[in-house]
Amino acid sequence: MTTYDDRVGPGDLTATVERVHRSVEGVIEGKPEVVRLALTVLLAEGHLLIEDVPGVGKTMLAKALARSIDCSVRRIQFTPDLLPSDITGVSIFDQQRREFEFKPGAVFAQIVIGDEINRASPKTQSALLESMEERQVTMDGQTHELPSPFMVVATQNPVEMEGTYPLPEAQRDRFMARVSIGYPSAAAELQMLDVHGGASPLDDLQPVAHADEIVKLIDAVRTVHVAEAVRRYAVDLVAATRSHTELRLGASPRATLHLVRAAKAAAALAGREFALPDDVQSLAVAVLAHRLLPTAQAQLNRRTAEQIVLEILHRTPVPDPSAPQWRPGRGQQPPGVRGL
Q: ChlI/MoxR AAA lid domain spans which residues (predicted)?
């Protein structure tokens, strides 16, 4: 049997994660939990939506993550006049060869930064749908595979901002998690002035990990064991959103898949070969809230999707964390994720 160590080679992969984390946190100071969530989504093969007001570092976080990994990176500045073909590509007729030739669009990169995604028209936003879910682009009946790893990191301003379009429900559902950076603390803001007052922190940022290392980490995350009780707990949480009286749209089955995959990545980052209910709980708000649509009455009562998810977490019975079934039994031992 091929072991984990056989696949990744000698040594620990702990250093890879730590290097990327330190590199990104050196740019986004005082927000370690935001950086950790971004890494969790990357290792879970998901896509990240960063939503916050202008000026708090949304684009800088996306660029820092992309520059910290030695891989292909493309940035898409979403504007009202951006066309779907600018994203996916276009077929151009070659006069000499007398045939159509496909010219790849901006989505053909390992990390795609979608800046201010909700400033583009819904039609253009939807151009990302197939590539985000299927990791491929179909043009004129031909399918073009996207590289691996593949991650979309999109930023958006709150819908209340002028000139923004709400993301369609289908596209919000493609993002594994949503995070808000928030304003820095006074101490972090002072440090930012001292360290980065004269230049951009991205100027000196160099890659600290290779794309091949990230692929091996992703392979390791896939082996993390998720006990039936943990899977059922995730299903119960998602199902509760569909019957909640303050929600007119609950989370989809895709949300359940994303929640479990993210929990596996969180377990791997914690150095465990198995996921716990705590992993599901810690990610539930980030993974579920952006998919939910509160009712008009809930909005009048100033109830947010995040508050509703926290309420569901409080109400849903949690499996016994001391039970021995979290670990895989004999014959089920995964190759392992030691040291992530």
A: 240-311
Domain spanning 224-318 has what CATH number? 1.10.8.80
Per-residue pLDDT, 43: 94
Which position has the token pair 């290097």?
A: 19
Q: Are 220 and 333 in contact (CB under 8 A)?
A: no
Residue 298, both tokens: 């809930």
Maximal CA-CA distance, the chain: 70
Instruction: Decide yes or no: CATH 3.40.50.300 for domain 8-183+199-223.
Output: yes
Minimal CA–CA distance to 295: which of 236, 241, 235? Answer: 241
Please state the domain extents for the chain: 8-183+199-223, 224-318
Read off φ and ψ for residue 178, nearest 5 degrees: -120, 140
Same fold? 8-183+199-223, 224-318: no
| Res 155 pLDDT > 80 | yes
Structure tokens at 62: 């996306």
- Tens digit of pLDDT for each residue in 53-95? 887 788 888 888 889 998 888 999 998 899 999 999 988 887 8
